[in-house]
Amino acid sequence: MKRILSIILVTVLSLSLLASCSQSGNGNDKKIVIGASPTPHGEILKVVKEVLAEKGYELEIKEFTEYALLNPSLDSGDLDANYFQHQPYLDDYNQQNNGKLISIASIHYEPLGLYPGKTKSLEDLKDGAQIAVPNDTTNEARALLLLEAVGLIKLDPEAGLEATIVDITENPKNLDIKEIEAAQLPHSLQDVDMAVINGNYALQAGLNAATDSLFKEEQDSLAAVTYANIVAVREGHEKDEKLLALVDALKSDKVKEFIAEKYQGAVVVVDD
Question: Which SS3 state, helix, strand or coil, does residue 160 take?
Answer without folding.
Answer: helix
